[in-house]
Amino acid sequence: MDSKIFSLRKLFYGFSICVLAFLSFSAFSHGVDEGTKQFLTNNQGTAIVPFLYIGAKHMVTGYDHLLFLVGVLFFLYRSKDVLIYVSLFTLGHSITLFIGVWNDIQVDPYIIDAIIGLSIVYKAFDNLGGFKKILGYQPNTKIAVIVFGLFHGFGLATKLQEFEFGRVGLFKNLLAFNVGVELGQFLALTVVLIVLSVWRRHSSYLKFSIVSNVFLMASGILLTMFQLTGFITQ
């Protein structure tokens, strides 16, 4: 039994190191791939399918958004609670995505991504019971999720605003992009929920819950530090 636990620990720490290395490499990148960049720059009209694809791709590859959602879902066991929290997050980022792009509200990408990193830190700290232990009370988690959802939406808007694409068909394109984001989120969360549901059947789930959320917090701190460094040195 001890050897199995030791092997699990080695596997977990090895995985953590790999993910952190990936995060450290990716954290400086605010842009999108070259093909998407060319499309957004040259597009002059309604393009439903491409914007659907771009939105889905951005969410599936958006490790910062997904890490926050992993923290939100980590201790949610009922389908009803999962639906409520995911809906609140979706509402938050949908509002600011539309407002940000439609009204051309410019937010520094490093600052907004640093805040998104802090949202991961916040949720992991919350999962560890940090607020109760240090402050003696529990902040409203639902309010926190929708507020951070608003910041995540500005992060999505910032990615689109890096390109001077035409405003013809803008509403439809934004709607398609947002639907794509939700589709990508649904696919990613399906995988996350399957992994969590399988893991919860084993005693290692609770044993490693503290380590897992410490890892989430460390990832959020790392992301925040890199983004702030990018802001200072840009």
If you had to describe this structure to a student in words, what would you say it looks like?
This protein has 234 residues and is mainly alpha-helical. It has one domain (49-233). Helix content is 79%, strand content 0%. It contains eleven helices and no strands. Helix 6 packs antiparallel against helix 8 (141-161). It is globular, with a radius of gyration of 19 Å. Mean pLDDT is 83; it is low at 1-8 and 21-30.
Query: Fraction of residues in helices?
Result: over 70%
Report the principal-axis shape: globular
Rg, alpha carbons: 19 Å
Overall pLDDT score: 83
**Uncertain regions spanning at least 5 consecutive residues:** 1-8, 21-30
Strand content: under 5%
SSE ordering: HHHHHHHHHHH
Q: What count of structural domains? A: 1
A few lines on this structure:
This protein has 234 residues and is an all-alpha fold. It is 79% helix and 0% strand.
Give me the secondary-structure topology.
Blueprint: H1 2-26, H2 34-42, H3 48-60, H4 63-73, H5 79-102, H6 109-127, H7 130-134, H8 141-161, H9 170-199, H10 204-207, H11 209-233
Helix pairs in contact: 1-11, 3-9, 4-6, 4-9, 4-11, 5-8, 5-9, 6-8, 6-11
